[in-house]
Known about the structure:
The protein is 36% helix and 15% strand. The chain is an alpha/beta fold. The chain has a single domain, classed as pyruvate-formate lyase- activating enzyme, CATH 3.80.30. Strands 1-2-5-6-7-8-9-10 form an eight-stranded mixed β-sheet. Strands 3-4 form a two-stranded antiparallel ribbon. The chain is globular, with a radius of gyration of 18 Å.
Amino acid sequence: MLTRSSGYLKEVCSHSLNPYGGCGYGLSSCGEGCYVRFNPWLTQGREWGKFVDVKINAGELYLRSIEKEKNWAHKRSIPFTIFMSSSTDPWQPAEKKYRVTRSVLQAMTTCPPDTLILQTHSSNILDDQALLLKLDCSLRIHISIEGDRNRLPGLPLPPCSVEKRISALEQLSALGLKTVACLSPLYPLEDPHKFFNRLKNAGASAVIIDHFIEGDGTTEGSRTLKTRLPLAMSQIREDSIHLPYRTHIANIARNYLPVGISSQGFAGHYTH
Length: 272
């Protein structure tokens, strides 16, 4: 259940935890640029967005493995940090029925990690806000909000509107929970100043800006270049598909909030 981190995630956490295999959001806009869709070990020949494997006993498996994995991390003098999730969305539609994510969070109230990073595209995280308040660990909640547009040309709608995701961020922040807005992958912004001011007013503690170049696990963004996302972005703003656009947007964002870039941002390292 707990996977020791490698590659991109090694800078972010000691372990990842995925309560589902596949993702019910895979056919929405976030699935278009999702790097996981190109992982044959995960897809096993199946089309991304058309399957979901439910790890029904995830909470139990977590409790069985936590001591061993925590000791593994601490012996290497690193915090026992869990990223949930790296290859699925913990609050995808299946969670309404199966509550696997909830079972893991309940287990964590008994045996917490040192740090927990939660990542979601969905306002459904609000279903578990009372449980989040019970977690006795360092907690960061990453809400994926790629930009201020709900749709890019030729792509499907997102799983949850920008408005709903900002509202979820605001509600969680109001509870005293640490929230971070993740522009991952960064979309071309219509009004960056207005957008970052909104995130600041909603209570975000920081923003992560992660371009598909480097952000998809390749130095040139080669995985994402196989998808429709770069063309959709370039139809709005041609320079948005190049890495200097990330720098341009980060410089604007720093007028409003601390900014983390790519993996350093996911690891909780920000600059003003």
